[in-house]
Specification:
The structure holds two protein chains of two kinds. Chain A starts with a strand and ends with a strand. By secondary structure, chain A is mostly beta strands. Chain A is globular and about 40 Å long. Helix content of chain A is 0%, strand content 54%. In chain A, a hairpin with a 2-residue loop joins strand 7 and strand 8. In chain A, strands 2, 4, 5, 6, 9, 10 and 11 form a seven-stranded mixed sheet that branches. In chain A, strands 1-3-8-7 form a four-stranded antiparallel sheet, with no helix packed on it. Chain B is an all-beta fold. Chain B contains no helices and eleven strands. In chain B, strand 6 and strand 7 form a beta hairpin. The chains are: A mainly beta, B mainly beta. Chains A and B meet through strand 5, strand 9 and strand 10 of A and strand 5 and strand 10 of B.
Chain lengths: 115, 113
């Protein structure tokens, strides 16, 4: 987990506020991902990026936006937070050229509560 | 639709006992299957990755099996420890890219003294 860090780890906000979650990695991986996890559900992909100039929508991108500021940094924004965006958010990284064969490595997560 | 189903949803066992978690998948084409361990409040950590040609793979007290014909996998934990208490998630890459993962909902394991 130390190779992939997320800030903040916990955040409580109000409906309508803009929120940014940040992810940094020291693994040197090209690929980065944002997922959300809800109780009783599997992780779902929000956005993914294969390099700084390549950003793609995932399964549930509505209400979210992302920015890949550098190879090591990938931020997730909620432009106007709503209560059903309350969830645990995970950043992950992977690299096809590494020995792990595109295995994804996850950060420690950010618990977001929208009131 | 690609799906990964896990059972049981939750499990409580005594410390020192063995247990087996199940995963059934309907993902095509199949390339590999992964088991992750997720401690409460932490990110998932990979336990093992099994490719199409592998039937059994061990990682310490964890042993994963794969039957590609029946599309089933199991994770066997031997001599459980309190630190094994976690959710165990079965994950199968789907779609054309290895990055597209279908996650199971996980099995929540509680090991009690």
């Amino acid at each position: 987990d130390a190779d992939v860090t997320q800030t903040p780890r916990n955040r409580i906000t109000k409906t309508g506020k803009r929120i940014m979650l940040e992810c940094s990695q020291t693994k040197g991986h090209d690929r980065m991902y944002w997922y959300r996890q809800d109780p009783g559900l599997g992780l779902r992909l929000i956005y993914y990026s294969f390099d700084v100039k390549d950003i793609n929508k995932g399964e549930i991108s509505d209400g979210y936006s992302v920015s890949r500021q550098a190879q090591a940094k990938f931020s997730l924004s909620l432009e106007s937070a709503i209560p059903n965006q309350t969830a645990l958010y995970f950043c992950a990284t992977s690299d096809l050229t590494s020995g792990s064969g595109d295995e994804q490595f996850f950060g420690p997560g950010t618990r977001l509560t929208v009131l | 639709k690609n799906q990964v189903e896990q059972s049981p949803q939750s499990l409580i066992i005594l410390e020192g006992k063995n247990c087996t978690l199940q995963c059934n998948y309907t993902v095509s084409p199949f390339s590999n299957l992964r088991w992750y361990k997720q401690d409460t409040g932490r990110g998932p950590v990979s336990l093992t990755i099994m490719t199409f040609s592998e039937n059994t793979k061990s990682n310490g007290r964890y042993t994963a099996t794969l039957d590609a014909d029946t599309k089933q996998s199991s994770l066997h934990i031997t001599a459980s420890q309190l630190s094994d208490s976690a959710s165990y998630i079965c994950v199968v890459p789907s779609g054309a890219g290895s990055y597209q993962l279908t996650f199971g909902k996980g099995t929540k394991l509680s090991v009690i003294p």
